[in-house]
Amino acid sequence: MTLTPADVAGYTDRDLDADLARWFADAELVDIPAETRPVAPFLERLAPADAAALAALDARVRSGRLPQFLDIYDWSYGFDFAENDCTILDSDYETELTDDDIYPIGADGGGNLCVVLTNGQVAVWFHEEEVIEADTRFDNLDTFLWSYVRYRAVRTRKLPLEAVENDFLTLAQPGALEPTLGLLRYMK
Question: Which InterPro entries match (predicted)?
Answer without folding.
Answer: Knr4/Smi1-like_sf
